[in-house]
Amino acid sequence: MIVNPIKNGVVLDHIHAGGAMSIYKALNLDKLGCQVAIIKNAESEKMGKKDILKICEPIDINFDVIGYLDPGITVSIIKDGKVAERKHLELPEKVEGIIKCSNPRCISSVEQELPSVFKLTDREKRVYRCIYCESKFKSQGDIK
Amino acid sequence: MRSLIDIKELSTAEIDELITVSKDIIANPVKYSEKCRGKKLATLFYEPSTRTRLSFEAAMYELGGNVLGFASSDNSSASKGESVADTVRVVSGYADIIAMRHPKEGAPLVASMHSLVPIINAGDGGHNHPTQTLADLLTINREKGRFDNLTVGLCGDLKFGRTVHSLIGAMSRYDNVKFVLISPEELRIPGYIKKEILDRGNIDYVETRSLEDAVPELDILYMTRVQRERFFNEDDYIRLKDTYILNSGKLAKAKKDLSILHPLPRVNEISVEIDNDPRACYFEQTLNGKYIRMALILKLLGVE
Q1: Which residue among B23, B51, B230, B239 is the active-site one?
Q2: Strand B119-124 and strand B66-70: pairing?
């Protein structure tokens, strides 16, 4: 299968296989009017299989969102057919508005329009804790 | 402007300073009786409390200040659905400092994000209660004259007991402190406390189910209540609530200078026969709570 190189836009490479759709949703790519290629299970020397997203339009990327969902992703900004910038992501220190606290005793469960904020407390084990109640974020099911 | 939401925000030097000021207040109360003249403390208590609220109010009165506030959410605009953020924005225009108790964890932190004046967390659900820990520390310091070289027994609900977790964190800062963690299987200390505080700090501790076996080696015995409000299941509460009851028989082999603490209220976990034992410190502990809150109010208001 051949997907042509893009001239101006963004390529998200090294997405773990099967993860492309959650990135697609988290970045609201369905709202774009331009071409978006979702390549699933592409062959990869390093990863065996990987997913790739190609977006044919320059867009602002929320690096915290994709860094949280998959810190192994490489983001390439393409300008005039060339890689203008390449970014290797890492887990963000703080994530805001991406995940929500599942602790029913947390103030965030009742306070109006309180931003949902989590802090990285253990990089090795990818542990995020709610800044209000310090509960550990438990499952991807709580992604907003 | 500084608030106090979590005891971890205080450095060891700051805790030592609060202890020193508290002791000076105890020794020279008149010197402090006008320090907060013209200042107001707002006590925003969204759930009932006897000791903590009255202790904050007494502390402010003894500093020469005034107090306003509410004692339950039924008597406040929270019953109309007002947010913590809005309430605090309003109240911080009326008071110089705010003490807040709220059943939801993190509410005082939210308050501190919107307040124009310092916020003191007076207890947020099962989460933090820093001034209780300060009261515990002042009591230990007054009883023992030190924080280091002590064997501290913590007994009862070590799973949900916020005061236990905070006290372990605070006492772990000092040298050669050993913890004896006494609880039924279901209420053992959470793994993250063991891992993040005890193991990480290479702190000596043992876990046991037997209060009798543990008592002889203790310098401090910190008793706790099994709290009904922390259980989702009433059957679990009833099954566990009477696991440990401290009476004179259980103290038979205790050290002569043991200090018995309890954050109160007690239900039945300390028999009233212990109240007159010279080793019982839990009523002094409530008094110490007032003194250390006075020291804290002075510190957060920047009063010399």
Answers
A1: B51
A2: unpaired
Whether residues B189 and B277 share a domain: the answer is yes
Query: What pairing do the DSSP bridges indicate for beta strands B177-182 and B40-45?
Result: unpaired
ipTM higher than threshold 0.85? yes
Whether residue B273 sits in one domain with residue B297: no
Q: Which CATH number fits domain A9-88: 3.30.70.140, 3.20.14.10, 3.40.109.10, 3.40.50.2000?
A: 3.30.70.140
**Per-domain boundaries in chain A:** 9-88, 94-142
Q: Tokens at residue B11, please?
A: 């450095």
Mutate: best of A133, A136, A137, partner B, most B CBs <10 A: A133
For the beta sheet containing B177-182, the strands, ordered from the edge strand earlier in sequence to the opposite edge, are B205-208, B177-182, B150-155, B220-223, B259-261
Tell me whether residue B2 is in a domain: no
Q: Check whether residue B170 and residue B193 sit in a common domain.
A: yes
Chain B nearest CA to A111, separation (Å) = 6
Q: Which of A105, A109, A111 sits opposite B85 (nearest CB)?
A: A111
pLDDT per residue of chain B (304 residues) written in tens, 0 to 9: 899 999 999 999 999 999 999 999 999 999 999 999 999 999 999 998 889 999 999 999 999 999 999 998 777 777 777 899 999 999 999 999 999 999 999 999 999 999 999 999 999 988 999 999 999 999 999 999 999 999 999 999 998 888 999 999 999 999 999 999 999 888 899 988 998 899 999 999 999 999 999 999 999 999 998 877 767 788 888 877 788 899 999 999 999 999 999 999 898 899 999 999 999 999 999 999 999 999 999 999 999 8
Residue B224 sits in which domain range? 131-285
Which residue numbers of B have CB closer than 8 Å to A's CBs? 83-85, 102-107, 109-110, 124-127
Beta carbons within 10 angstroms of residue B50's beta carbon: 11
Q: Please indicate, yes or no, whether residues B31 and B96 belong to a single structural domain of this protein.
A: yes
The CATH number given to A94-142 is: 2.30.30.20
Check B129, B142, B162, B165 and give the catalytic one. Answer: B129
Cβ proximity of B261 and B136 under 8 Å: yes
CA distances in angstroms from A103 to A2, A7, B103, listed in the order given: 46, 46, 13
Report the residue of chain A nearest B192, measured CA to CA: A136
Interface test with B, best of A107, A113, A133, A134 (most B CBs within 10 A): A107
